Amino acid sequence: MDSLLTSRESLALALGQRGVVPVIGPEMLEVEVDDGTGRRRGVPFYRLVAEELLRTYGCSPAEVPAGAKGGGWPLHQAVAQVLAERRESSTERLRRCVSATIKRLAAQVLAAPLLDRLARLDAFDLYVCLTPDELLVEALRRLPGREVDIGAFAPTADSSQPVDILPRAGAVRVFFPLGRSAPGHHLAIHEEDALEYFYQFQEYGPRRAPSLLAELRSRDLLLLGCNLPDWLGRAFLRVANEKRLSWPEKKMEFFAADTQDALLNSFLARFNPNACVFPWSPQEFIGELEALCVGVARPPAGNAPALAAAAAATVAGVRQPTVFVSYASEDREAARRLADALLQAGFGDVWFDQHKLVAGDDWSDRIEEAIEHCDFFMPVLSHQADRRREGVFWEEWRKAVVRAMRVNDSFVLPVGIDDTAPDRSGYERIFSGFTCDFRRIHLLHAPQGRLPAEGLQALRERSERFAQARHD
């Protein structure tokens, strides 16, 4: 996990120099609203917008996805459905309806916790908001003494008018490259709109927003909650970079783990050497930013007496290491063979879900505790896992990568179970995104879960070294 550690250090350095521009997407807008009974409920804001828009036009809100990875944003999907069903013939009328819906629902928001926490960090003087609402602006303005300058771009606006927002002492700036839901402003309401806005900004930006564009192209970008589809991610990153993405000396781009489009991740891994996908959700990323901004390390999460007891397994008075085996359900039998082999290799306890989960267990909490307290984590790599867009094991792998950044030693032990060795298997999803470092770790090969003698011996030696180091 060395590259993630150095990327975290790079982010910390840039934050200290106020050289980072947060780019806010719709997944950051988890808001609290009244559930109708006087109690608060948390909900994605643009899920509310999409459902309301479809109700307005007589479409089924049940068809609104929650924001599938790489599948576009809920607002864009809802607008596409309205247009596909020919419920509205005037795009301008639809655009105004979207703007009015966003403003009406934003007025009903009781809190936007992630935006509030982000606004309180005194590390940024410029934000880019890819959503057209003003929830971030309101969060910033609620802070005492905070002044906010706003700029917005739209291809249909008067091209002779500048949209630059220059630095001003004591003020922060918020820029809306995809328009703004405010009187007299236009906004992008679907994917083709978003593409056109970026295209036009690339053409007119040097004249209408020279200062702003220069800052975007010279500062590191921090993309939070964006979940950018492949094509949109490439378009935005190219606009925000003066040089081509493959240029090795350019600035950095940091992504949260919700950047899950496999094609975009693969593209970044090949052609953008300064891009890093951190294994954190937007909520976790805000916590990491809070820690970095005050210069302290975050403590390990959770407390697990049951796991601590399991981790205390001993042989002849020397504690043997524990290991968590994580796999796609299609690979269960191979994972079971690996778990048995690990016990033979001298590991004191092996977490294998069918062995450790019992009736009445809180499944998600137990797994999170296990990953926090195990000594090693073994992801089972396979073509079947690589084909899965979703799965509990992806979340387990993400949590393990987060934990690995706090462990000053080898923690993740990837093992490939396909007939072809994992370093030659060409995994697209596994070797991109937040698990891209798996390919740089020593990869074990156990076809169908059967470890060869040399692999078993290597694990036995690792177990013995760990136990001896703890004993010493």
List keywords for this structure.
single chain, 472 residues, alpha/beta, Rossmann fold, 3 domains, seven-stranded parallel β-sheet, five-stranded parallel β-sheet
Describe this structure in words.
Helices cover 43% and strands 14% of the residues. It starts with a helix and ends with a helix. It is of the alpha/beta class and 472 residues long. The chain has helices at residues 2-16, 45-56, 74-84, 91-106, 113-120, 135-141, 191-208, 210-218, 230-239, 262-271, 282-294, 305-311, 332-344, 353-356, 363-373, 383-387, 392-404, 453-471; strands at residues 20-24, 30-34, 40-44, 126-129, 147-152, 171-176, 220-224, 253-255, 275-277, 314-315, 318-319, 322-326, 349-351, 376-381, 415-416, 444-445. It folds into three domains: 2-28 and 111-294, Rossmann fold, CATH 3.40.50; 41-106; 305-471, Toll/interleukin-1 receptor homology (TIR) domain (Rossmann fold, 3-Layer(aba) Sandwich), CATH 3.40.50.10140. Strands 5-6-4-1-7-8-9 form a seven-stranded parallel beta sheet, with helices on both faces. The chain has a five-stranded parallel beta sheet with strand order 13-12-14-15-16, sandwiched between helices. Strands 2-3 form a two-stranded antiparallel sheet. The model is unreliable at 65-70, 296-317 and 354-363 (pLDDT under 50). Helix 7 runs parallel beside helix 9 (230-239).
